[in-house]
Amino acid sequence: MDLREPASAARWRHRDLGTRTVRYDDRDAILYALAVGAAAADLDLVFEERLRVLPTFALTCAQWAPDVLGSAGAFDVATAVHGSQRLRVRAPLPREGELELTARVGEVWDKGSAAIFEVVVECAYFEATWSLFAPGHGGFGGERGPSARRRPDGPPDLEFDVATAPGQAALYRLLGDRHHLHIDPEAARAAGMPRPILHGLCTLAAVTLPLAGEIGAHPADLVALDGRFAAPVFPGDRLRVSGWHEEDALLFEAAVDGTTVLTDGRAQFRVAT
Which CATH architecture does the domain made up of 158-269 adopt? Predict the structure, then answer.
């Protein structure tokens, strides 16, 4: 059977995607912090003498895994989209060093007209899961998978704005995700976008910085993060973030000019007592 056929999508379930050693130094971690919105005054994020590495930096180190699955023919890379992201932090990332990463396909969910491929990357410091929405690959008789978290009732407990920069996608792509959609106007138009879009992982990470501040936590103390990408964000957009307290976590969503761009958000931080 041809693994590229939609009916064979379930055959990718639990497929081994390999192991890689990824090396980085403090320059990479600082560049990442700047790319997701850290300010020059945030010395413990941008100054090597005081550096604490943002946990979401780990996602740039593991970006190769979903690319491997797409290149192997599991889905059409031209039409598949990054649907959601999950991160669980096991230990703080060192300022520099190397990560031994193992990757595999987790579940493959059947949404009827599409399949959702979960790509799981693990190491001693984190576990990250990409959910990739692949049109035309559903209908294989599999389970639909979990539903999105229900939006909290009542008004948000907090609201704030996050301003993205016009050049933010050009900076963020230096961390490894160099898909042309984020820099080339022609590639963006071919994908149905009026101009290059900001990386979803950049948007998600940018929101976690002020979320931490709202509850008196440090963004490097993030221990869990979830988010679904509902609509594209363009460099220079201003996000309106709404948050709700839920026990030891914050639920959140974000919108641009009334259009929701992030949903099903959940962030948990280790807060000093």
Answer: Roll (3.10)
